[in-house]
Design goal:
86% helix
Length: 185
Amino acid sequence: MSYLTSAAWIAHDLGLATTIGGTLFGQKALHPALNERLADDQQRKMVADAAWRNFSWMNLAAHGVFAATWFIGRGLLTGREVSKTSRTLTRVKDGLVIASLATGVASIVLGRILGKKVRDREEQEMSGTVGTDDADAGIERLRKAVKLLGNLNLISTAGIGAVTTALSMEASHSLPFSFVSRGLP
């Protein structure tokens, strides 16, 4: 296996790890800790917003890295080098990568919009301006949408990791692919 192929594979796996790990940390550690430690609801929302804003750029880059390395590497093969099972797994992974990109970008965009609305709401409260129930309902709908997209992204990205492992194991059984893969970047 060439150094370029190894580097691309490592980058692909690090991108997956960043996306999965960051999302799991936020959902299962950050938010529960904020709920447990901060009594003020608005303060919890502001801290969560700041944390997700910081992570969103890294998350976006990670999505770009694992998708780019997958599609570039995939474009270098014709499909004749692998088994029927590998071709099926490859198509499944294509779909999962697209789903992960779509849900990842959508959750980042909606998360940014949500964060802005939460910050605006905080400014209204600090200035003594009363917000509307419609605005609060809109924030809650956005929060639910972001959470749903985050969960769908986590599932699709974890699926990519699982299919990547299955493809790696399948490749170890394919003599033609083992020869071809040595020359891949």
